[in-house]
Amino acid sequence: MFLKKQTVRKNGKTYCYYRIVSAYRDDEGRTRHRTERYIGALSDEAAAELRKRLQGGAHSAAGSAAGLRKQLRDGAYSAAGLDAGLHKQPREGVRGAAAEPAGRVSDRHTAAAGAASAFLFRDMSEIVYAPWAPWEWNVTDSDVLLLVRDGQGELRIRGRKHALRAGSVIFCPAGRGIHIGNPFKQRLTLDKIAFVSVEHPAVSGIRPEEGDGAPVRVIAAPWRANAFAPASPERIARWVRQLRSASTDSRGDPIGTQLAFYQILGAVFEPGAPAAEDGGAAGWIDEAIRLIRACFHEPLSRDRTAAALGISPAHFSRLFRRETGCSFVDYVCRTRIRHAQELLLLSPDKSIGEIAESSGFQSEHYFSRKFKQAKGCSPTAYRLRPRSYAALSPHIASCLLTLGVVPRVGVLEPWMEDVYGRRLSLNEMRVFGELGEEALRALEKAQPDLILAGEGDAHWEQLREIAPVIAVPDLDDDWREPLFLIANAAGLRDRAAAWADRFDRLAAEARLRLSRAIGPDDTVGIVKIVSDKLYVYGRSTSMGGCVIYDTLGLRAPAAVRDELFKPCLPNKPIEPHELPHYAGDRLFLFDYRSKWYPDKPGWMQSDAWLALTAVRNGHVYMPNPDLFYSYDPLSLELQLEHAVSMLTSHSG
Asked: Are 311 and 281 in contact (CB under 8 A)?
C-alpha cells in the first residue's frame, strides 16, 4: 500500500488531498488501484510521516495486505492521529477516561493489529452482583475479558452502554475505566479473565535461549474495547470451565491453562479470520461522508469527491443516493445548513454574511434562500425565535436547570433529579440516567431546536441528524467557561453571572469560617481509591479539587503543588508508600472500591497509614463521591457546603 496525492484546482486555488491505495491486477492483467482509506488534507510533514509508516509496515510482520487493511479499519493512519504525541503523562481521566496503570510496563507501546503478539494468562476470578446492585466504577489493571455466566446487567465503557446477558463477552483493555451495575431482580455472575499482551520474541529480537530474563515488552492488545456476541457461547462456556479447573489445579497445569485461554481468545476474536478485501458501497459512502463533514466549508463537488475516492462520478452518484436517500448536492447543503444553525444560535455577534461564508455558501443571498427552503424561515427569524433544548449530560442539564431552563430531554443523576424536582417542575422534561437508545428515540421525537452535548460524545453525528449540536467542553480546571458557554447558547448570560456572584459570596463566607478552624499552614490532600489503585488530585474539577484549592483557598501538600499544580495535571497515580507525601494534615479520601477488590486495602492497616498526621488526628474525611464527581452549579454548591462542614468538625 502507498500514499497517493490528489491535486484539484478550482477558482484559482489549489486543494491537495491524500488517500491510501493498494495495487491489484484485474481480470485482463492490468494494474489497478483500490482506495483503502481516504485521509483528507495533510501537512507536508504529516504526509512524509505517513509514507514512512506505510513503507515500514510493508516490510514488517504486520505488513501483509490483510494486516494493513485490519489496521485501517481499526483507525490506524488517521489524519487526526498523525501529529499525536507517542508518550503522554499517565493519569486517571477526570470523567472516567482510561488511565495507564501504574507499574504496568514502562516500555508499553501500541501493537499493530496483525503483528506477531503473544497473550499471557494472568488470573481468573468470579464476580457476583446481587439483584438491584448499584453502579460501581473500576479501572482495569491489565487486559480483561468479562464473560457473563448467568443473569443480566449493564456495563458502560467508552461512553456506551452494553447489555450484559448470559453468553455475552466484553473486552476491556488495560487502564480502561468501566461502570458495571445490575438493575435487575436476578443476580449477575461474571467470569473475569485477566491477561497481558506482549510482543512476540521473534519481533522483539529475543532468542529462545535467553529464557525468563529476556526483555519481553508489554504492548496494547490489538482489539478495541467492545462487546461481543460469540457464535458458540456454549463452547466458550466449556472452555471457561476448563480454564477455571486448570488454573486452580493444586498440581499446576500451565499448558492446560494457556491452551484453554487461547481457545477462548480464538472463539471471541477469531484472529485468524481473513480480512475483507473490499468494504463495498457502504465503505465508499462512509469515506465520502467523512470528507463532506471535514470539508463542507470548502468548495466541494461530486466529481472532485468521486475522483478522491477513485471511482467514476456517475457510479458515485448512484451509490450515494442508494445509501443515503438523497443526492450528493443535497447532503452537502444539509450539512452546511446544520453548521449555519449552530452559528446562528451560538454566535450572536456574527453577521449573516459571515455565517454564510464560514458554512461554505457562495453568497449571503444564496444562503438565505437555501436556509428558508430547508427551515421555513429566514436566518434572522430563526436566530430570534424561542428555543427548546436537550441536555445530554448531567453537568449540562444541571447548568440549564440552574438557569431556570427545563430542557425537553435531559440526562440527570437520580440525586440531581430529586433536588431539582423540589425546586422546579420537571413535568415537561423527559429524564434519562444516560444517553442510550431510549433517550435517542425520545430526542428524535422531541425535535429540540438545540442539543447541548459533551465534547467528543460517541453519538455526535447521529445527534447532528436531529438538530444543531453545541459541544460543551469537559475542562479539568475551570467550571466557569462551560457554564457561560451554556448560558450564552440559551441567551441567559445575566443569570449565569448572578449565580456566579452568589457562589463567590458563599465562598467568601466559607473561607471566613475555615480561618477560625484551620491553621494557615495546614495542608489538605485529595486521594481517590479506584479498584485497588490510588490517585492524588490537584486543582481538578472532579473530586472537589477546584472547590478545595481554588474556591476555599486551602493549602495543598508541597508534592501536590510541585507535581500537579505546576505542570497543570488534574491527577496522577501513586503507590501506597507515597501517601505521606500527598496526604497532608487533612485528607479527603474518595473510596471507589468495588466487588473486584472487596477487601479493605492492606495499606489501610499498615503502620505507615496509621502514622499519617491526618489519620492520627482524625482528619480523614470520606465524602459522598457522587456529590464531588461533577462541577455543575448544584454540585459546586453542595461540595462547598459539605467540605466546610467536614473541615470544621472534629471527627473524620
From this structure: no
Q: Does residue 163 sit in helix, strand or coil?
A: strand
What angle, rounded to 10 degrees, do the helices at 480-489 and 493-515 form? 160
- Which three-class secondary structure state does DSSP give residue 180? strand
% of the chain surpassing 70 pLDDT = 78
Please report where in the chains the cell 479539587 appears, as a residue: 545
Q: Which three-class secondary structure state does DSSP give residue 418?
A: helix
Q: CA quadruple 74, 77, 80, 83: dihedral positive or negative?
A: positive
Mean pLDDT (whole number) for 140-152:
89
**Three-state DSSP state, 553:** coil
Torsion angles phi and psi, residue 433, rounded to 5: -80, -20
Q: Which residues contact 292 (CB under 8 A, 6 or more apart)?
A: 300, 305, 331, 332, 335
Cα separation, 227 vs 157, whole angstroms:
9
Cα gap 629→636, rounded to integer Å: 10
- The secondary structure of 588-613 as a DSSP string is EEEEE--TTS-SPPGGGGSHHHHTSH
* Tens-place pLDDT, residues 589-643: 998 877 777 777 778 888 889 999 999 999 999 999 989 999 999 999 999 999 9
- Give the CA-trace dihedral at 351, 352, 357, 358, to 10 degrees: 70
- Please report, for residues 61, 85, 276, 625, the alpha-carbon distance to residue 113 in angstroms, rounded to integers and kept in the order given: 10, 20, 15, 38
Compute the distance between CA of residue 630 and CA of residue 479 in angstroms, rounded to an integer. 10
pLDDT band of residue 456 (cuts 50, 70, 90) is low
Q: Which of 218, 193, 201 is nearest to 111 (CA)?
A: 218
Q: Could you tell me the pLDDT band of residue 95, with boundaries at 50, 70 and 90?
A: very low
Q: How far is CA 135 from the centre of its chain?
A: 18
DSSP state of 540: -
pTM of the model: 0.65
Q: Which of 385, 374, 395 is nearest to 344 (CA)?
A: 385
